[in-house]
Amino acid sequence: xxxxxxxxxxxxxxxxxxxxxxxxxxxxxxxxxxxxxxxxxxxxxxxxxxxxxxxxxxxxxxxxxxxxxxxxxxxxxxxxxxxxxxxxxxxxxxxxxxxxxxxxxxxxxxxxxxxxxxxxxxxxxxxxxxxxxxxxxxxxxxxxxxxxxxxxxxxxxxxxxxxxxxxxxxxxxxxxxxxxxxxxxxxxxxxxxxx
Length: 195
Hints:
This protein is of the alpha/beta class.
């Protein structure tokens, strides 16, 4: 079992208690479970084909909001987990294509709901397109940018603020499966906070 410092985490149970009308003296602050992606890690959390819920995405992209909610309710917040970068989903894009597939759209709808609630906040979120190593370096870079732009366009169409989203492509430079650079799982998009 790994030790997790309590001052860096916000408890979901605590937030649930707050939304149910609990008072500071009735609910002790407990540490949240460690994130699937270690703090400070450069790894993205792979959603696979699972459609996440809005609360999970909101907590992952904007963890400092939970701290603000605690403080607004009279609690002291000692810190929060770092924001998570999500990988959507492995092998979602067809070879050589930037067309957003239906399965990916269901996941992106949840992200759009969360991003729509942050309109006007001045925050920025990166949409990072990736390609496998099947094509040329220049072709893969262009394709990965097209994938990021296609996802950004979909999110904007669903109500996200255009200037909140920064679309970038990295080609095949950051494979998820480095042992097999041409693997379909390297064709993906990642969504995370702007650093």
